[in-house]
Amino acid sequence: MAIETDNRWFFNKLKKGLEKTKKLLLTNVDDLVLGEKKIDQQLFDELEEALIMADVGPVFTHDLIDKMKEQVKRKELDSASLLKKLLRDSMVDILARSESQTNMVKGKLFVIMVVGVNGTGKTTTIGKLANNLKQDGRNVMIAAADTFRAAAIEQLEVWCRRVGVPMIRQQMDSDPAAVVFDALSAAKAGRADTVIIDTAGRLHTKTNLMEELKKMKRIMAREVPGSPHETLLVLDATTGQNAVNQAKIFSDEIGVTGLALTKLDATAKGGVIVRIAMELKIPIRYIGIGEGIDDLREFKSRDFVNALFDDNNH
Asked: pTM of the predicted model, to two decimals?
């Protein structure tokens, strides 16, 4: 019963959080399909413009329009209102393919390396993720391996106190790989079964950053074979196309196994999740819709689409 109430609470919060995206995406689509509109090239052109504006991306948009034209040809799409159903079904289809939960084995050490550009909500995501995993019975430890920003370490410390998990840190400007080594040594000695590693996110010094991240990965693999078990990239939904570009850079350089999409409640660009799912094909693990400790959840595609299309049958 408590889980049911919690799910309902989060669904309502998600619905509210996606209002800006919904307004941009669906108000335009609703305006287009109002009444018995004739399905013609002009309608398709207007629909294409509305979808591109909502940041779902050109690939999804063109595929969808092609699908619609095909159905019109086969006489399967005879009213404009069916266009909306097709839009919804296509979103469900794309997003369901990106839905994938992290596979943690009970009692086995699991290492999560969290990467992303400064300002995406990385530190906050780590705090909330630590809380989620602790609630699931994991014994969590956080490693403050962004040793270049005092603010990052302080913010992590606040989260560690709030959540009640230990933090491994070193002096400012020390070698991040040394922090990683310390944290994994402590975990192997039985102090934790889950280590979340924060990393720097200075993308303007891309080469240095990527080399540093690769070095950290090598240390992880040496100390705990097979790790990091998850390289989680945190993306800020409000940046739209930029988020896609960042994901491509991190993915090409160090490999990304999962995504956390933050600030969905603060943007009209929530449609970018469709673009990310379609163009990157990296599992979307978590979505963030607020500042609260419970505002990071595992991504569930059906809930997301139901919340966007205002459907309570979830």
From this structure: 0.90
